[in-house]
Write a structure and sequence with these properties.
Low-confidence stretches: 157-165
Strand content: 5-15%
Largest sheet: 2 strands, antiparallel
Structural class: mainly alpha
Strand order of the largest sheet: 1-2
């Protein structure tokens, strides 16, 4: 993701290439520092894009709520959770996803925050599990795939060794995917 050109300009057909701290790869946004803030924001905006494309149906009171929920589960939520099984999520990332989800659910139920209807009531009414649970399910499903891979599959420790040889900065170490999975397993008593 990063190559040190010793501060030289890199040109391609007379166009100077600028160095970026983020780039998009296979629908995910990768950051130079390894964090997922941009990717979470991008996924939330992708969910809202799907929402806007179908807002005529989702906000129409004549359309049955069951159909709205089915569309939400099959189009909007997968757009928001694409690639999330590999995220080392922090509480703030889950909070951002939950806020976006609840805004959408309230909207197609016809409620606003001023109506003072609790999130649990709206979730029960539409029959949608919290996005945090779905995120954990996706991560644990991916963990199962990783655990079942054949022994001759490429080992990821070579990558981890290179990362471990880098001198650490001050402060708390970054949350890793392994730590997220361990937390999920502990929370679900698995």
């Amino acid at each position: 993701m990063h190559y040190n050109f010793n501060h030289k300009k890199v040109c391609l057909h007379a166009y100077e290439l600028v160095q970026n701290d983020t780039f998009r790869y296979l629908g995910s946004v990768l950051q130079k520092d390894g964090d997922i803030d941009e990717d979470v924001r991008h996924r939330i905006s992708a969910g809202w894009l799907k929402w806007r494309q179908a807002s005529g149906i989702l906000c129409d009171k004549r359309v049955p709520q069951k159909l709205k929920v089915k569309f939400y589960r099959t189009a909007i939520r997968p757009a928001m959770l694409y690639g999330a099984e590999c995220w080392p999520t922090k509480r703030r990332h889950v909070q951002q996803l939950s806020v976006a989800e609840m805004r959408m659910l309230r909207w197609f139920c016809g409620h606003t925050r001023r109506d003072r209807v609790r999130n649990e009531v709206i979730r029960d009414r539409v029959g949608v599990a919290p996005i945090e649970e779905k995120l954990t399910q996706h991560r644990l499903r991916w963990f199962g795939h990783v655990q079942r891979r054949p022994p001759e599959a490429p080992v990821r420790n070579g990558v981890l060794e290179r990362v471990d040889n880098v001198k650490r900065g001050r402060g708390r170490p970054k949350l890793t995917w392994d730590e997220s999975v361990k937390r999920d397993l502990k929370d679900w008593n698995l």
